[in-house]
Amino acid sequence: MVGHRGACAYRPEHTIASYELAIDMGADLIEPDIVVTKDGALIARHENELSRTTDVATRPEFADRRTTRRVGRKRRTGWFAEDFTLAELRTLRAVERRPDLRPLNTAYDGQFGVLTLEEVVELARRRSTPLRQVRVLAELKKPSWSAERGQPMVELVAAELRRLDATSPDGTVVVQSFDAAALRRLRADLGDDGPTMFQLVDVTACDDHLLTNAGLRAVSTYAQGIAPCVDHVLLRDADQRMTGVSDLLPRAHAAGLTVVPWTLAAENEFLPLHLRSSEDPAARGDALGAARLLLALGVDGIITDNPDVVVAARAELEQTAAPAIDTAVDTAA
Ligand code: G3P
Ligand code: CA
């Protein structure tokens, strides 16, 4: 089970507190998104624009860095990681992305800084024990776009994984990206005995080709798994009604791929209609029900904002599957 941006339902995403809590709750992996700084450092931020998850907009010394830029297909205005050195970014403080949805998390605003990939790897290693390996699922954000702007993210990540001794398939780091070309380049660079990789798949039409049988076979030549949007597994209509279950799991397994869907979150906003508790998007619905359903279908993992929910669902399943213990006392002797 993967703690998405840590345990971001309970702490501001990508902070040390969020990752620590995910591990405390039982996450097997913690998930930093990775973007590149001006000086080529790899940092844990969901997107290169920083104003939704840091206090950069309140800092007069950086006011002149505000700009408008096309990032991928979208035009964004704000402050961008690639315009800051790592030393400058270290002066920023993290804030909650969704105060409307997760107001309790704002209590932690300003308490934590921005982490590097290296620091997240160090945390995972520090929290691993002989009985429990904690791993890092590092998502490369827009690596091809980054490369076009002169920041070769794939090469930087390959070099960093080598430096951190994290290039083996069972090593600390698993890599994922929506960018298939970047994953192929990373595989070519680090080799077939390089790190485990997941191909992320969105629900947009341009990703559909990845999920045909031929597409899945192609993915299996460079990645060990797919991480599809959960809506590819639990199908919904435009009214958010669940309409059924797709055949993606058996087809991906037949292609030799593990399946780790994203993102299970407990608020009504994210759940199918029948699992919502009310019309309040911020109220918690039946996320445990959604986790039970995914596990019963045979997913190999779940990427979640609420690691505690998936741990509970997994424990239930293990209990059901455990062989019955004969507690009868033989009194015949
Ligand atoms: O890890 C899967 C998921 O994180 C991909 O989407 O936007 O949350 O990074 P996003
Ligand atoms: Ca992510």
Total beta-strand segments: 14
Beta-strand share of residues: 15-25%
Hetero groups in this structure are: SN-glycerol-3-phosphate, calcium ion
What is the CA-based Rg, rounded?
21 Å
Number of helices: 10
Mean pLDDT: 95
- Shape label: globular
The main sheet comes to:
10 strands, mixed
Proportion in helices: 25-40%
N-C termini distance:
48 Å
Point out poorly predicted stretches: 329-333
Structural class: alpha/beta
H-E order: EHEEEEEHHEHHEHEHEEEHEHEH
EC number: 3.1.4.46
Protein name: glycerophosphodiester phosphodiesterase
Keywords: Glycerol metabolism, Hydrolase, Signal
InterPro entries: GP_PDE_dom, PLC-like_Pdiesterase_TIM-brl
Topology (SSEs and partners):
Elements: E1 2-4, H1 16-25, E2 29-31, E3 33-36, E4 42-44, E5 67-71, E6 74-78, H2 86-89, H3 117-127, E7 135-140, H4 143-148, H5 153-163, E8 173-177, H6 180-190, E9 197-201, H7 213-219, E10 225-228, E11 234-236, E12 242-245, H8 248-254, E13 258-259, H9 287-297, E14 303-304, H10 307-321
Helix pairs in contact: 1-3, 5-6, 9-10
Bound molecules: SN-glycerol-3-phosphate (G3P) and calcium ion.
Brief descriptors of the model:
ten-stranded mixed β-sheet, single chain, alpha/beta, binds calcium ion, two-stranded antiparallel ribbon, binds SN-glycerol-3-phosphate, 333 residues
